[in-house]
Amino acid sequence: MQSARVGEDHPVAKLVHVEWGVREISELIDRQRKLIEELQESRSDLTSAKIVLDSLIVTLTLHLQKRDQLRAMFNAEMAEVFAACRNASAEARSGRRQQAA
């Protein structure tokens, strides 16, 4: 049996990549928030730390939008596959009934 290969341009590969990015950016946001807390405790300037946090949040928002878009594409593609399978199965059953009659 030959294994199916998914190229980088396939929606599933893109979805995996974006999911990885969402997880990584979320971790960076958590670390940046902890850093800001530490800077507040030491009464340090928070300006650049907050700018970095804002940038990370924007990047996460863009990744989440892309993830939603890719999930919709994937779900639509899977719906087509399942519909084709149902149709093929119904045609096969119909053909067997006709042969039996």
Report on this structure.
The protein is mostly helical and 101 residues long. It has one domain. Helix content is 84%, strand content 0%. The protein contains 2 helices and no strands. It is rod-shaped and about 85 Å long.
Feature tags:
single chain; 101 residues; rod-shaped
Strand and helix map with partners:
Elements: H1 11-41, H2 47-100
Précis, in short:
The chain has helices at 11-41, 47-100. By secondary structure, the protein is mainly α.
Specify Rg, calculated over alpha carbons.
24 Å
- Helix fraction by DSSP (H/I, runs of at least 4): over 70%
Mean pLDDT: 88
Strand content: under 5%
Number of helices, where a helix is a run of at least 4 consecutive DSSP H or I residues: 2
Q: Number of domains in the coordinates?
A: 1
